[in-house]
Amino acid sequence: MLPLNSMLCCDRCGHPKGRGCVCRYLNAEILKMRAPVVYDGWPVNAIRALKYQHERDRADSMARYMVPCLDQLGDSPLLVPVPLHHDRLQERGFNQASLLAGCIARETGLPLEDALIRIKATSAQARSASRAERQEHMVNAFVAAPGWRADPDRDYVIVDDVYTTGATTGACAEALALAGATRIAVLTFALDLQPRELESYRRLATAAGIA
Ligand SMILES: [Zn+2]
């Protein structure tokens, strides 16, 4: 497992500093993004086991890694899991982002709300899809739940399992902002780095004695 160390990562986007920084792609609505580990090694297996083998108890240990990141994501934020489309929820029987957010809420006492609804069914996003393709795909994929309004003075943290291009959490942030939220952050369990960025970060982490 490769932890993402705050000394080696950008304070806003939480990605490795330098060329790994993705602030230029981060939606303007997102103040900060954090993930505790790189999507590599056992975190990959943990996410697959949770999503595809339905090993729901994996969520607890994943959430425990995520909790310390919350210190940097606002003051008593409201947790908002990335919703699944109704059809996908029927098929899988549970939403992995809701499970993670639920474990975090139990561990911290923070509130959780299903503030968003996914109105656009999206096919499984191929890892090969470009950032622009993924973003295009996710336009208007989410809306606020009927009657849900955000408190502009409150901190919101969007919770998901893995951050790849940010297209999903970016679309969620836009929906929250449309509902009035002004203080939005993102927390995922793992961060999927491009192979070159992964190697470069691994070298830095090894040199710093973190990996
Ligand atoms: Zn950055």
Question: What are the SSEs and their pairings?
Answer:
Blueprint: E1 30-34, E2 37-38, H1 42-52, H2 58-66, E3 78-81, H3 86-92, H4 96-108, E4 116-118, H5 131-138, E5 142-144, E6 155-163, H6 167-178, E7 183-191, H7 195-207
Parallel strand pairs: 1-7, 2-7, 3-6, 6-7
Antiparallel strand pairs: 4-5
Helix pairs in contact: 2-4, 5-6
The structure holds zinc ion (ZN).
Residues 10, 12-13, 15, 21-23 line the site of zinc ion.
Describe the structure.
By secondary structure, the chain is α/β, with parallel strands linked by helices. It has one domain: Rossmann fold (3-Layer(aba) Sandwich). Helices cover about 35% and strands about 15% of the residues. It contains seven helices and seven strands; from the N terminus they run E-E-H-H-E-H-H-E-H-E-E-H-E-H. Strands 1, 2, 3, 6 and 7 form a five-stranded parallel sheet that branches. Helix 6 links the parallel strand 6 and strand 7. It starts with about 30 loop residues before the first strand and ends with a helix. Bound molecules: zinc ion. Zinc ion (ZN) binds next to loops.
How many DSSP H or I helices?
Answer: 7
Secondary structure category? alpha/beta
Order of helices and strands: EEHHEHHEHEEHEH
Instruction: Please estimate the helix content.
Output: 25-40%
Q: Which architecture name does CATH use?
A: 3-Layer(aba) Sandwich
CATH topology call: Rossmann fold
| Low-pLDDT sequence parts | none
Write down the overall mean pLDDT.
94
The top-level CATH class is Alpha Beta
Strand content: 15-25%
Shape call:
globular
Count of domain modules: 1
Largest sheet, in brief, is:
5 strands, parallel
Rg calculated over all Cα atoms? 16 Å
Distance between the termini: 8 Å
- Bound molecule types: zinc ion
Number of E-state strands: 7
